[in-house]
Design goal:
496 residues, alpha+beta, Beta-lactamase, 2 domains, eight-stranded antiparallel sheet, 45% helix, globular
């Protein structure tokens, strides 16, 4: 009887555990999800992000997939799992995978000289022509400078990719290929052109047919021109301390580096494929694993961080993480994966903001049971706030100049003052005034080139907060009004 009772008690305990443990796990999971929801909502409010889509996959299952905010602020269209976002540089992993796929088919080798496929692409370092390999393009060790992004042309032409790569011809490399890491987005446009030459297909068609379709990413597109859907989110930039709708130029020659367009449904499939637990086997898992192998022939570009093939790999808390951020003028994304635990997080956002990366890292930390330590501060937001205040001051000064100029012209019209004789003193003052005004305008024009490593105003107007464009034009207007006011004051005198 005692043995029977003990056996019954053991069975009862087991049953209790079987009932309670799933409920405890579920409760813990629900608590984590509540924390994630709260965290995202707080960050969205702070960052002024219009809309975002968040995906978490864990051991082959989509455990979290939710939209926040609006795909379009004007129509108040909510973000859903079907909402399409530009991925930005997280597109690079698709291009890198295509290169590995072509290598697996024996159509190229990553150790090949790039000129084998693009014979006219002769690039030099310190006057000497260099040999550049496909692998160096993949790992951003080609020597192509990061500011080459400023020369990517606006284009919708069929040969836009070739036009983009040709912008490299007149500019030297800034280091020997293979010597060190420097992130240059145009590396992947060169890879895109190689894919076209090897496959005998346009880049967008190759990726659609050989990468997206085989893994059932049938709601995704390669370039804005392919999008035939009402689900495309509107893009925004920060400006005047809030989101501002903005339509950037089309850069068809930059598609391999930054213009895959996708949604939460398809990115969940992409993460599962990357983590090796997808039910889709049409792409070799060996290729996926190969794309995650970092290039350790050069120094890490950040603490314990090396670049692989469209992915960065970092060792953190004795665990590997695979990640990449994406940034376009009006969209951002962030993907991060912990392969040991088969966890993946993706954030898709319809605004250019560094909060995207911070949210992605925070969501991963919360899902792993960690505490988020630091509150993210966006340099774009800080810059926008400062520039907005300066713009308001400059506009106020312009209004004051305009008032004084109007009063002076009115006095001239009413014959309360007249034109003065141009003596040596007035000619000297006019000359000094002209030099000051032209110096100010020249300083405005050349400031980005001098202070921002060769950037230009065209690039800044596309990528920077809209408040900077307002400051630029208001400063030009203020300079013109200053010159006009000074001219009228020097060239006229009151009648006695």
């Amino acid at each position: 009887m005692t043995r029977l009772m003990k056996k019954s008690m053991m069975i009862a305990v087991i049953l209790i555990f079987c009932i309670l443990i799933p409920k405890l796990v579920q409760a813990a999971s629900n608590d984590t999800i509540r924390k994630i929801d709260q965290f995202i909502e707080e960050q969205q409010t702070i960052s002024e992000i219009p809309g975002l889509s968040v995906i978490i996959v864990d051991k082959g299952k989509t455990v979290y997939q939710k939209g926040f905010g609006f795909a379009d602020m004007k129509t108040k269209t909510p973000v859903t799992s079907h909402t399409l976002f530009e991925l930005g540089s997280t597109s690079k992993a698709f291009t890198a995978l295509a290169i590995l796929q072509l290598e697996n088919q024996g159509l190229l080798k990553r150790s090949d000289n790039v000129q084998k496929y693009i014979p006219w692409l002769s690039l030099a370092y310190k006057g000497e022509e260099q040999v550049m390999t496909i692998q160096q393009l993949l790992s951003h060790t080609s020597g192509i400078p990061s500011n080459s992004i400023t020369r990517i042309p606006e284009s919708t032409a069929d040969n836009a990719l070739e036009l983009t790569v040709k912008t490299l011809l007149d500019h030297p490399l800034n280091r020997k290929p293979g010597s060190s890491f420097e992130y240059a987005t145009i590396n992947y446009d060169v890879l895109g052109l190689i894919i076209e030459h090897v496959s005998k297909q346009p880049f967008d068609q190759y990726i659609q047919q050989n990468i997206l379709q085989p893994i059932n990413m049938d709601q995704s597109f390669v370039g804005v021109h392919q999008v035939q859907s009402s689900n495309m989110a509107s893009g925004y930039k920060i400006g005047l301390m809030r989101e501002q709708a903005y339509i950037p130029p089309v850069y068809s020659g930059n598609i391999p580096a930054g213009y895959i367009i996708s949604n939460a449904n398809d990115i969940a499939r992409w993460l599962k494929l990357q983590l090796g637990n997808s039910e889709i086997y049409s792409l070799s898992n060996n290729l996926i694993q190969e794309s995650h192998i970092p290039d350790q022939t050069v120094e890490p570009f950040d603490t314990n961080t090396f670049y692989a093939n469209g992915w960065a790999v970092v060792e953190k808390d004795n665990k590997p993480y695979i990640y990449h951020a994406g940034e376009n003028p009006t969209f951002t994304s962030y993907f991060i994966m912990q392969p040991d635990e088969q966890i993946g997080v993706a954030i898709l956002v319809n605004m250019n903001t560094s909060f995207t990366t911070a949210i992605g890292q925070g969501v991963m930390d919360l899902w792993e049971g960690k505490t988020i330590q630091n509150q993210h501060v966006s340099s774009y937001q800080k810059l926008d706030k400062i520039v907005t205040i300066i713009s308001a001051i400059v506009i106020a000064i312009s209004i004051f100049f305009c008032y004084l100029l109007f009063k002076n012209i009115q006095s001239l019209y009413n014959k309360q003052c007249g034109l003065a004789k141009l003596n040596y003193k007035r000619i000297f003052l006019l000359s000094v005034h002209f030099v000051l005004a032209t110096t100010l305008l020249a300083a405005i024009f050349f400031t980005p080139t001098i202070l921002l490593g060769g950037l230009n105003w065209t690039f800044i107007k596309v990528w920077a907060p809209t408040s900077i464009t307002i400051l630029l034009y208001s400063t030009i207007v203020a300079s013109f009004l200053y010159f006009s006011l000074g001219f009228t004051l020097i060239a006229t005198k009151k009648k006695i």
